[in-house]
Specification:
By secondary structure, this protein is of the alpha+beta class. It is about 50% helix and about 20% strand. It has a six-stranded mixed beta barrel with strand order 3-4-9-6-8-7. The chain has a two-stranded antiparallel ribbon with strand order 2-10. The chain has a two-stranded antiparallel ribbon with strand order 13-14. Strand 7 and strand 8 form a beta hairpin. Helix 1 packs across helix 13 and helix 13 runs antiparallel to helix 15. The longest helix has about 40 residues. The model has no long low-confidence stretch (mean pLDDT about 80).
């Protein structure tokens, strides 16, 4: 019976063409939309984790309350012993120190007088230790535009856009003016090793990156760091695990009333990321529901039109004594094959389009010139295993649902009127 129905669907193009195209289009949009939203959300989480929040972040309580100001006078002290303790308690985590600071970048002329200057967002990471993964984590090797990465103390990186604005070339002297942890003026000369472009508007506008130990010396922050960032070994953020870890860590220090006691925050507890992640998840769910509803309505109407076109056929089958339930089930089986074909076709086209967006991406840098969040300037789709099957919902379910709704009319046919209908 199934073989017979399948031949009927393949041979009667009028019966299958429009529903097949409709299903394929809906599945295509579902797969592409799912891959795109997954990629955007994944990029947002990944960039924020790598450059700003970590999967978890440890700060002093006072620092956490004023985190927007990056107050290094409220930084964590004795970080070496704290990190040693963290490694024992959480051996499956990677812990790194970061210092963020504001300052003025001054470019002197040949006489030592100021030639150009501009405000900078300073970031200190461990660039020179052989055991450090920070260069790879921040993708610095690919980000280098001119020059090279720092190879020794006293070298600095500037964002390429910022360096061009200051008209400074690699190998030139750069002076950083800032304030120490204790409020006094800090001034340190560096050699510009190279320029970088991360594709993150907030950093590319005016970033100055130096080695952690250089920053600790310049800012009088020995064995001190503004933030300690933790990363899961597999590099994938797990919100449930991060929240559980933060609760357990904070509970251990709850009895300590010192404002400089450490406190842990998960990624979602920083930079209002929880609301953004929830928003993206809601958008994905709503989009899937809309596709399902729209396709169900379209295929319902298609089923009604098909039912009208096949009115005589169904009447003949009923007149010959075929049970209404059998006819109804056969129509559902037909719709299943149409939905399956549409799912395969739509998924193939959707994955192909998603792959192009995954490789090429869409640049939104021109629309994010004033953005302050850690967001990439190029958003990409991301194909996950779920993308291969997400189209089953609008593909098969909506097709079968539409046929189920339209096929109810079979049960309303009166056998006594069949011959009058056929004569007409």
């Amino acid at each position: 019976m199934i073989k017979f129905l399948l031949k009927g669907v393949l041979r009667d193009s009028h019966r299958s063409r429009f529903p097949l195209i409709t299903v394929a289009l809906g599945v295509f949009l579902t797969v592409l939309g799912h891959s795109w939203l997954t990629g955007v959300m994944g990029d947002m989480i990944d960039f924020n984790a790598k450059y700003a929040t970590g999967h978890v972040k440890i700060m002093s309580r006072a620092y956490a309350e004023n985190i927007d100001q990056r107050p290094n006078d409220l930084a964590l002290m004795g970080v070496t012993s704290l990190i040693d303790s963290l490694k024992r308690v959480y051996p499956d985590m990677q812990w790194v120190q970061r210092i963020q600071f504001g300052g003025l970048v001054d470019i002197p002329d040949k006489n030592g007088e100021t030639r150009s200057q501009g405000p900078a967002f300073g970031l200190a990471v461990d660039l020179l230790s052989k055991s450090s993964d920070e260069i790879d984590r921040l993708n610095m090797r690919k980000a280098v535009v001119r020059g090279h990465l720092p190879e020794k103390p006293g070298e600095i990186l500037l964002s390429d856009t910022f360096a061009q604005k200051l008209e400074v070339e690699p190998g030139s002297q750069v002076t950083i003016l800032s304030s120490t942890m204790y409020g006094s003026m800090a001034m340190q000369n560096f050699i510009l090793a190279g320029t970088v472009q991360f594709g993150i508007t907030a950093m590319d506008r005016g970033a100055a990156i130096i080695d952690l130990k250089d920053a600790q010396t310049m800012l009088d922050m020995r064995d001190t760091a503004g933030e300690i960032l933790g990363y899961f070994d597999d590099g994938i953020y797990d919100g449930v695990r991060a929240d559980s870890m933060a609760r357990a860590f904070n509970a251990a220090y709850r009895a300590n009333a010192d404002e400089f006691a450490p406190v842990m925050r998960s990624l979602e507890q920083q930079n209002e990321l929880a609301s953004m992640i929830q928003y993206m998840e809601t958008v994905k769910s709503v989009a899937l529901f809309v596709f399902l509803l729209a396709m169900s309505l379209v295929l319902w109407n298609a089923g009604l039109l098909g039912g009208l076109r096949r009115y005589g056929e169904i009447g003949v089958r009923l007149a010959m004594g075929e049970a209404k339930g059998r006819i109804y089930r056969s129509m559902i089986v037909e719709s299943f094959f149409i939905g399956l074909g549409g799912w395969i076709l739509g998924t193939a086209i959707g994955l192909a389009a998603a792959y192009i967006l995954q490789e090429k991406g869409i640049s939104v840098g021109d629309n994010m010139k004033s953005a302050s969040m850690m967001l990439p300037s190029v958003f990409r789709a991301h194909i996950t295993p779920a993308a291969w099957i997400v189209g089953l919902i609008p593909g098969l379910l909506s097709t079968v649902l539409g046929t189920s709704l339209s096929g109810v009319g079979i049960y309303k046919r009166q056998t006594a009127h069949l011959f009058k209908e056929l004569e007409a």
